[in-house]
Each structure stands twice: as C-alpha cells, then as structure tokens.
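# nightly structure sweep
# worker-07 picked up a monomer target from the shared queue
# config: single-sequence mode, recycle default, output format = structure tokens
# input follows
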Amino acid sequence: SIHRGRLMKISPKSDFIRDMRDSFAEGVRKFIPSPEVDLGLGYLLGQKNSLPEEISKALTITALTHIVVASGYNLTVLVMAAQRIFNKISRKIALSVAILLVLGFVFVVGFTPSMIRAGIVAIFGLILWYFGRKTQAYFLLTFVAAITLIFEPSNLLNLGWQLSFASFFGVLILSPLLQKIFFEKPEKLNSALKLFFETFSAQIVTLPLIIFTFGAVSVISIFANMLVLPFVPSAMLATFLTGIFAIFSPIAHFFGFIAELILKYSIFIIGEFSKIKGAQLEVSFGFSEMLICYFCLFLAVILINFKLRKDQMLNILNES
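# output follows
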C-alpha cells in the first residue's frame, strides 16, 4: 500500500506499429468526414470501435459486421491487387510483394484466429498459384485448421475461429457444389452470381452457430451483403490512397471524395435495410440442436458430392 498515493503521470507503452496505424488513420480523417471515415477505416484496418453506435447496430441487424473486421476478405483484396499489378512485370516479384503484403497486414492488424487462418490460406494459395498447382478444398481446410490449432489449441473454443472456419467451409466447399447443381458450366458464371452463392453458402454454414450463440438471425442479410460487398474493394482502395497521399492535399481530396461517395452509399444501404420491420428475428436452440443441424448439413454435402461425381462418371461413359 502507498500512503496518500497520487497519480502524477500516465506514460503509454510505446508501440511502433500501433502508432504508425494511428497516424495513417488520422491522415485519412482529415479528408473524409465522419461517419464515412469510420466505416472506411473499418473496411481497411478492421477498426470498428470508433463506429457510431447507430451504424454498429445496423451492421449487426444486417449481418454485415464481418466487413469491418480485418479478415480474409481484406487480404483477398490486397493479394489480388498485388498479383494483377506486379504479375505484368514478373511472377516472382508478384509473389514476393503479395506475401510481404499478407505478412505486413497480419502483423499490423494482429494475430487473431481469423487473421492467422486468412494469412496461412493466402500464402499457401500464392505458392500454389506461383507453381501452377491446385489443391483440394477439403485438404486446404483441414491443413489450415490443424496449423492454427497446433499453435493455439484454445482456438477450438474461440467463436471467431469457429465462425471463420464455418464461412471458409461455405465458400470453398458448399458454394462450388451449389453452383454445379444449378449450372452446367459454373466456371462461366459472372461475378455477381458467384458472390451470391458464396454469400449464401457462408450464411447457411454459420447460421446454426450464430443462432446458438446470439439467439437471433438476420433474414435480410444476403440481400444487404449483395448490395454492399461489391463496393467494399473500391472503398478500401480509395480510403487507402487518401491516407497514402495525405501529405499532398489535392490528390488526397480527390481520393477522399471518391471514398466518401462509396461509403455514403454503403451507409445508406445498411441503414435502410436495418429499418425493415422483422429484419432480425429472435430464434434460439440448444447445443444438441446445433449439432443436429451441422450433421444434416454435412450429410447433405456428402450426398450432393456423391451425386455430382456419379453424374460425371455417367457422362464420361455415355461419351465413350
């Protein structure tokens, strides 16, 4: 104990990465007004604590909270941009730059379960892309899950890890199966249809876990996602360039204006959808019901996969 103790000074712990990230965010805030800048930084850096309560609540109702959490989606945008730009110069340079971006992004955002998973998947995918190889989705899912659990076994009980791998399963495994069922040539689908199937599949796989955990479900989430997600990469890029050119006011104002327009649209869609009566329903069930749902889901995936392979074999026999 200290007799008549008195606080004299608070000295924050030095953190170079945090200070650099905060400095970048302050530069962006000079050229993009609030609340648009709060959503833009949420897209780019996963900073959701500064979001106004109204927008944060609307994101929850529309099941769009995932867009303001630094995750595999953000990494995908960075990796694809690096590949497109630097692959024109050299495949090796594109690989090196993309991997550095992934490592830097994970390091800055933090070693959360979703970021570790996304980082491993991104680097693994880049290496396969470089050597012109493909891998089975089941192997990739199992491999990444094993790696993350080896480093941190407690991730198995972490909700973020569970939701991350559930959505991962939906996008990588369920979505391609559904596309093959409804279309003869799924590889020729446009980006809007692919986005629909990926969003729908991720929502289906995560639904039992969300209901079990939160006791509520958004009935308009897939429509809100379809209208907002296509514009997230553009908003991220414009917000990023605003921060990069913050020392050059005319250029920063230009990119800030573009980012503001895109973010205004996103906020409008999110806000309007959240106002729909009955947008979020209260539903609850226990642990055993959740396990039954996942058992039925996995059984359906196995049966669909078996049917598609059987049809493929029949087609090959008929052609021969």
